[in-house]
Write a structure and sequence with these properties.
Layout: H1 2-30, H2 57-61, H3 91-119, H4 122-159, H5 164-191, H6 212-239, H7 244-269, H8 284-301, H9 304-307, H10 325-328, H11 356-362, H12 387-393, H13 401-407, H14 416-426
Helix pairs in contact: 3-4, 4-5, 4-6, 4-8, 5-7, 6-7
Length: 427
């Protein structure tokens, strides 16, 4: 162990000596720091350091700034790492994500069965499965990017912050996304057997060996790309901007996408009829409609009407017809503004029907309560008397119920039995 350590330090010492001697020779030949000229292109004098960059020992030595005072912290400093949770805390969002995951697994299993029957090779099945996932992700990316463009555009329009800078950022996003689509389209065209080397010549294409699943996804991808490019071109026409890079790249990609779709349709026609679960394609108009509804909901939900507190005039002082007012009786009368007239002081509860006992005693507001100072018996007829008086009297001059049967009012045409007897005699 000691011999190995001794050998290590001897080697380190020799290395230091070699480096220092080389540094000293270079400084002695071309001058120290501050007086160290460098050769430039076209300088034939031969005076100056010919080394470039950190090949020069002086520049290599100055690369770590040892003489730069960067300071130091007053207290302890620790490494802080921010951990972001991969899933949302909302139960509804978690349930939706779980449902999407289950649907994706079910779709992947169905695709795997179809791919195994078609390729009958594990390696080819794995490659085709990866391409199918890539096609799905590209279509999702198309929808997400267009939604982000629409949302940013409408937000700037609502806030009035649209200017040349925002348009420039939008064009840069267009160009970046179009280049990404170009790379993805090239890969999918290679999968279909198209020969893209050199000048395009369909005679050099290979047979299309893709499965029906991959062909159907490629058709969806082509439709989404064409729709997205239509939106970009429409936006350029609205802005009246001539972007040469976009205007030259988009037609070339559209030509490839159109041919890829035609090859996919032709390949699918060679297969027997097969039911495939096609994904619902969300086009530009659908994405724009969803973004508009979302922005309108956000602006309407936090608008001034919801944030303005209710004034005392708008707040009702009491419910229109309290539940207990019908039991308590309220005012004398039969409802809210019907036969019972309100008193002069209208600050009490709203008019309501009288309570149950008052209904029996008074039968409404026409005599149920005697006037002040009237000590006589309550009126005994019609609607003026109470319920028992109505049974007893059935009128102001009458007696009880049996008297009413006997006399039909006491002074009329005689009692009921006499009328029956007279009628028999007349017959």
């Amino acid at each position: 162990m000691a011999a190995r350590r001794l050998q290590f330090f001897k080697t380190l010492k020799d290395t230091f000596k070699t480096v220092v001697s080389s540094y000293n020779r270079h400084v002695a030949q071309y001058g120290p720091k501050g007086q160290h000229p460098y050769l430039t292109r076209g300088d034939e004098s031969g005076v100056g350091c010919p080394l470039l960059g950190k090949q020069c020992p002086l520049k290599a030595d100055a690369s770590p700034a040892y003489d730069l005072d960067l300071g130091y912290p007053d207290g302890d400093v620790y490494v802080v790492s921010k951990v972001q949770k991969p899933q949302a805390e909302d139960a509804g969002a978690m349930a939706l994500a779980e449902a999407k995951r289950l649907v994706a697994e079910k779709t992947a299993n169905a695709r795997a069965d179809t791919l195994k029957k078609h390729y009958k090779n594990i390696k080819l099945v794995a490659e085709a499965n990866g391409v199918c996932e890539r096609l799905d992700s590209e279509v999702d990316k198309l929808e997400t990017e267009q939604a982000a463009w629409f949302k940013r555009r409408y937000t700037h329009d609502l806030q009035g912050t649209a200017n040349a800078t925002t348009v420039k950022v939008e064009l840069a996003d267009f160009l970046t996304f179009v280049n990404e689509l170009r790379l993805a389209t090239t890969m999918f065209c290679d999968r279909s057997g198209m020969n893209l080397t050199g000048k395009r010549d369909p005679a050099n294409d290979k047979p299309d060996s893709r499965s029906v699943v991959e062909c159907s996804l490629a058709i969806s991808f082509c439709d989404a790309v064409v729709d997205c490019f239509g939106g970009i071109i429409y936006r350029l026409e609205r802005l009246k901007i001539q972007e040469k890079r976009l205007q030259s790249t988009i037609p070339a990609i559209q030509a490839l996408v159109t041919e890829l779709r035609e090859r996919s349709v032709a390949t699918m026609a060679t297969f027997p009829p097969h039911k495939i679960a096609m994904r619902k394609l969300k086009l530009r108009a659908d994405v724009e409609k969803e973004v508009k509804e979302q922005i309108n909901a956000e602006t309407g939900g936090g608008g001034g009407a919801a944030a303005t507190p209710a004034t005392p005039a708008d707040t009702p002082a009491r419910p229109p017809n309290p539940m207990l007012a019908g039991i308590r009786g309220g005012r004398t009368g039969r409802g809210r503004g019907g036969r019972g007239a309100p008193s002069g002081n209208d600050d009490g509860p709203p008019p309501a029907r009288p309570d149950f006992l008052s209904s029996i005693r008074g039968r409404g507001g026409r005599g149920g309560a005697p006037p002040p100072g009237d000590d006589g018996p309550p009126p005994a007829g019609g609607r003026g008397g109470d319920f028992l008086s109505a049974i007893r009297g059935r009128g102001r001059g009458g007696g009880d119920l049996l008297s009413a049967i006997r006399g039909r009012g006491g002074g009329g045409r005689g009692d009921l039995f006499a009328a029956i007897a007279n009628r028999k005699q007349a017959e």
